[in-house]
Structures are given as structure tokens and as C-alpha cells.
Amino acid sequence: MTGTTSVTALGASAERREGRQKVAGAARYAGEYALPGRAHAWPVPAAVARGRVTGVDTSAALALPGVLAVLTPDDAPRLAEPEDATLAVLQGPDVPHRGWCVALVVAETLETARAAARAVRVGYAVQEHDVTLTPGHPDGYEPEEANAGFPGRVERGDPEAAFASAEVRVDAEYRVPPLHNHPMEPHTSTAQWDGDRLTVYTSSQGGGTVRSVLAQMFEVPEERVTVVSEHVGGGFGCKGTPRVDVVLATMAARRTGRPVTVAYPRRYLPTTVGHRAPTLQRLRLGASADGRLTALLHEATTHTSRVTEFVEQAAVPSRVMYRTPALLSTHRVVPLDVPTPSWMRAPGEAPGMYALESAMDELADALGIDPVELRVRNEPDRDPGDGQPFSSRHLVECLREGARRFGWSGRDPRPGTRREGPWLLGTGVAAATYPASAVPATASAHALPDGTFVARINATDIGTGARTVLAQIAADALGAPLDRVRTEIGHSDLPSAWLAGGSTGTASWGWAVHDACAELASRLAAHTGPLPADGLTAFADTAGRADADSPYARHAFGAHFAEVAVDTVTGEIRVRRLLGIYAAGHILNARTARSQFTGGMTMGLGMALTENSTMDPAFGDFTEADLASYHVPAHADVPAIEADWIDEDDPHLNPMGSKGIGEIGIVGTAAALGNAVHHATGIRFRELPLTPDRILTGLLSGG
């Protein structure tokens, strides 16, 4: 059964509750709290790729009317050393990379702060730098762990020997450039001290984490720190942990004794808030003549900063996708003088599955087997890594259903055979996966005498519709009409919860909300007479259950299908169709789910065709630093995207049976598009993005 919705609150296509507020401009974001006496701050980024600050001349800046203070490494408030070294700003003279904050101007207005920042003069002792990632870089090493605690290396069988003896082999290298998140709302924070009490309004995917980090760095008890993240204008991972904006705003507020807002300029974001690190990936696939994989070797090389280690786990998804007796999945990381990479939607899976699913397409071509059929033939019945049974795995169903809807059976497998005038037409397919997990959370549920209910949890809605879906979960557990349930989120005084990231938000928060509401429903059933004036309350904590070891491998899966037209005159690629079919547990809200799926697919389209960042080796800076040069897809680039799902009945996840859906939409899109371009042209392009210059060069040279 595909795309169905329940007649109950859970699963219904409910409108987002804050939608009208946002359209009307009533939803307040972090920079829109006009507190009395509020000042504005503007950062001064380092103008060298590596070195030390030898002096900061603030005289011209301080002479401007309205300037309140200039914080420098010499006089900024001293902070306790944070676990995340990227937050230790203005604590010393070292400059680890270009764009590192070396001063902060505070002024009465944003315009004055910006002008004064440009008047600050910084002296440097410049040191040699290295920002270039190469496959054989002498400083590269194999990390013990990649991001999120995955082992850096997994090996079983004898993959080298198995590959060497395979009847059919593919050995290919794929490149994904640095990518940037660029949420609509830049990183912004407003901080206010009231004696030793701190209140912060910040654009973050997790206010609870911000609270604990600020308490540690500024050495105040957590109960004296309040963090509000009521509305967040996108994040995609780069707001998953506190960033320098909230530290700088808090420092400036402490220095001036006034509320201070720091809204990071968009051009400064690439060097400040993380990025998807570039990956150089080598895929070696060995198979028998009938298409059974006998060896899979996935080697990923990426960069990290010298500030702190972050390893894009691109080789991890190969460990779960296909049945093979011999596997090598390994990472190599090179520390460079670059900004610290961080999370970007589906870290690891997005670039890693691009390489793996492109290589699978190459293998299908070498074998003369349909790409859908090749994937089906190598479907495992258990997790290939640890042998655990899957809690649910309907990838084959996604592939079959997607192929049916897409009209795949009528496809001529020969590349370069379909043409409309100067346009070459092609279709491609790719699979997708993303882990399904949950983390502990707490929540409360409250019944009021007027017959309404309130569910409270410090969840964060980053544009995903979390408020709405949590209300649906609460209404379902209470057996109450949806319009009688209200949710309160985005405030650190509410019951604590994990951040919005890793596609764990709804699965984690919803579990706690469900349990609190189920407990409240039991209390109401046992209650006689009218409710007391202050109502009845129930509380839930999922610690020990949400984080308990599971005997099941839990993942979401999907299949992407794409049709493209390639202009042989200009090299332009136009996407004509995109279809995604997903198996992601029980879908809790059809409207918001489809929005998440199609949003991820749109990001995947950008990853495949338009988004690119270049690290300049001489200046140590990203040359595509704003939306004028870093090209996210425009409306004209995006076709009518279709996303649907197989509604899984998976009892091994959480009480709702749901899996995260925020990231799987991006995972297979780039590979499906790349495979479609190969089918259209007969030329295999292995470096993203597939821009007209690369396509035209390939067409003119014959590949």
C-alpha cells in the first residue's frame, strides 16, 4: 500500500501549525527579538590562511559614532576551554585558517558595526599553509573512527584477492567537491545577561546543547542559562551544534552589559559553520558473470581541519547495502589548514552512495544486466556487517514500484540512443539508505479543565513541521481531536530532548510525547469527577529504552529514478523527471513527509548539477562564498518531483513505527542523475557537479 494516510490524527495530511505565522511575519527568529537597548555586533574574519595575530588597531573603529566596543584576542573575556575547539574564538593569537574570527565590533546599529569592522586593522605573522587535498597526501592517516562513531575501517573476507579473481570488475574513482549548507536564515544569536543569568535566542537545531556548552564555557550553572530556538530558518546540519555566533553574542553582551545580536554575514558562513568535506572515492566491484557481487572495496579520502577532527563517513553505507562475501570499507583523512568540516544533510551517505550507486551502474553496464535487476540480485537477507536481521527492509519493493511508475520496462538500455533534435535523453536509477535510530528524550503532557491538552518538549522545528507531527502523535495517544492538542517546543526550560539531526528528531521526541500522553490518558481514564483547576500532568523519560541495544539492523531505504535531457550544443542538463519511492517506517504526516522527501531530492539535484565549492590553494579560501557564486537550484532547475512511499509496519523502532525522513531524500538523487546522464550520452562523468563545461568537454572529446 503506497502513500496512504490514516483516518486518525496520526498519518493525516495536517497543515503545519506555524505556517500562517511565518507567512504573516509573526514568527520571530533569533535576530528579531528587539530587546530594550539591544546592540549589534559584526565579526572581523582573518585575512590569512595560517599565522598569528601580531596586533589589532581598533582606533579608527572606536572613533566612529555609535561604536561601543571592539573585542580582540588581547582583551576578549576569557572562557573555559570548550570540547569543540572551533568555539574558542578570541582566546589567543593563533589563526588556524582563513575566516577565523580575530575581532568583534559592537555598535548601536548593524550598519555602524559593519562599517567599524572594516576599519579594524589586523597585523599578522604569516605562516605557510596547505589546503589542497590529494589522494596520496603524506599527512593522511586512517582514523580509528569516522563521524558518528562508525569504525574508520571494516574488512571481512579477502577483498583484494576476491576482486583480483572476479569474472567481471569495475575500478573507478569519483570526486565530490566541498559543499555548503546555506540555510535561508544565517547563523544568528541574540544574548542578554541579567546579573549572572543568561538568556539566548539562537538559530540552532538543539537549544539544549547550546545551553550546556554556554554554561561550561562561561562557567555558570546550567539552570541560570535559558536558550530559546522557537523558529529556525533551516539548518541541514550546520546548526546541529553551537557555532561561534552564539559565543560571540554572549561575550559581547557580557562586555557591554547590553543585549547583543550577532547575525553572521552569508559570505562568512563557509569558513565559519562547517561544510561537507570533499571526498575522493575509489570503488572496486567484483562480480560473477550472473551479477552476484564477490567483492566490494570502497576507499574514501577526505580532509579535516587542524582545529578538530571531523571525518566524512563516505565509505560507511557500502557496509549495509549489498550481499558480498568480501568487503573493504575504509577512510583516510588529511588534516589541512581549512575550516573544520561538519554535518551536512546525510553526511557520509550522500557522497558515499553517489560513488557506490554510480559504480553499481557501471557494473550493470559491464555485465549487460538491467541496473534495477542487478540491485535486486544482490539484496541481502540480513545486515551484511553484523548479521542482524533488518527490522524492516523493503528496498526491492521500492525498486519494483518505482520502476513500474517510471515506465522503466520500456527503457532501451543502450546509451546515447534517444534523441530529440540537439537533446540526448537518458534515464537512471539509484538506491538510497539512511540509519533509523532514536535517542532518549523527556516530555510532559497536560490535560486542562477546558478539555484541551498541552504536550511540552524541548524539540526544535527547523522547518520540518515538528510542531505539527508531535501534536498528531499526542492526539493519537490521547484519543483526542487534533485541534484540542497544543505543543510547546524550542525552549530550554521545557523537558529536555536531543537536537534535530541525524533523522532522529521525530523518532526520539515522538517516543517521549507518545509515552507522556499515553500515561496521561491512563490517569484520565482512572480519574472521576471534574479535573482540578490546574489540570492533570504526566511525564515520560525514554532513557534506557530509546538508547537500548537492538537485536535488529534499523535503516530506511529508497529508490530514485531520473530522466534527463542533455544539450549537445551547450552541455546543459535539464532534469525532466524525478521519482523517489521510500520505505521509511510509518509515515506520520503525509504532507510534511512529502515536503521532506522532495526537499532532499532537490538538494540532491543541486549536488549533482549546480553546487560546487573551490578551495583556492594560494589564499586558502572558498571562492564560492555566497549564493551568487554557489549555485543552489532555482525554480527553473527543478521539475515536478514525485515522492511516495511504502508504508511499513515495523514494530522494532518506536511506538509510532516511524523512521527518520529528513535525509534519505538526498542520498540517491545525485547518482540517479549521473547514471541518467551516462545513459543519455554514453559518457561516464565521475566528478560532481555535472556542469555544462564538463559535459560539453566530454561530448567534444568523445568521453
How would you summarize this macromolecular structure in one to three sentences?
With 703 residues, the chain is of the alpha+beta class. It is built from 16 helices and 26 strands.
What fraction, in percent, of the residue positions are helical? 10-25%
**DSSP strand tally:** 26
The radius of gyration over CA amounts to 26 Å
The number of helical runs is 16
Q: Enumerate the strands of the largest sheet in spatial order, edge to edge or round the barrel.
A: 3-5-1-12-9-10-11
Low-confidence stretches: 1-7
What's the overall geometry?
Answer: globular
Distance separating the two termini: 43 Å
Please state the average pLDDT score.
97
Structural class: alpha+beta
Q: Note the beta-strand portion.
A: 15-25%
**Major beta-sheet overview:** 7 strands, mixed
